[in-house]
């Protein structure tokens, strides 16, 4: 949840933190996170049977504290079967900031902006503190530009 709040602060989006917890997974302006565990569900026509499988999976995950205790985002990304690390650069920036690694977060942002990291996905927004241009608008900035601004202000 800390990542969501930090993401919304970086993008200068007000009000999302007041929405229901379910919004944090399905809402707009969330960043990708790799799955910690997975289960192949048996296709069934019964919603009750599918719900039962989902509850069983949730109980199983709840019974695995090691999934959460020793969580290291870099290790989880490296072990992901799809191996699409470009999906997680925004998440890595947020993770580094939350862990106190501001310099590492700055470095990721700089590497993305310089084209040194493959980044096919980024959110964008405006910097509400930036002065308006001659047309009365503010330019759209990508997440990594906004993260560098956020780091300089906080």
UniProtKB/TrEMBL annotation:
Protein known as: Uncharacterized protein
């Amino acid at each position: 949840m800390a990542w969501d709040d930090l993401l919304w602060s970086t993008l200068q989006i007000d009000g999302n933190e007041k929405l229901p917890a379910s919004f944090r997974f399905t809402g707009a302006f969330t960043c990708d996170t790799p799955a910690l565990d997975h289960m192949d569900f048996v296709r069934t026509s019964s919603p009750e049977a599918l719900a039962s499988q989902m509850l069983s999976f949730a109980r199983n995950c709840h019974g695995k504290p090691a999934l959460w205790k020793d969580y290291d985002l870099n290790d989880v990304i490296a072990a992901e079967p799809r191996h699409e690390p470009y999906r997680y650069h925004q998440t890595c920036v947020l993770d580094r900031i939350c862990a106190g690694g501001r310099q590492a977060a700055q470095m990721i942002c700089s590497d993305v902006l310089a084209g040194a990291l493959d980044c096919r996905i980024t959110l964008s927004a405006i910097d509400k503190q930036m002065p308006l241009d001659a047309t009365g608008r503010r330019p759209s900035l990508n997440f990594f530009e906004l993260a560098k601004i956020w780091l300089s202000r906080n």
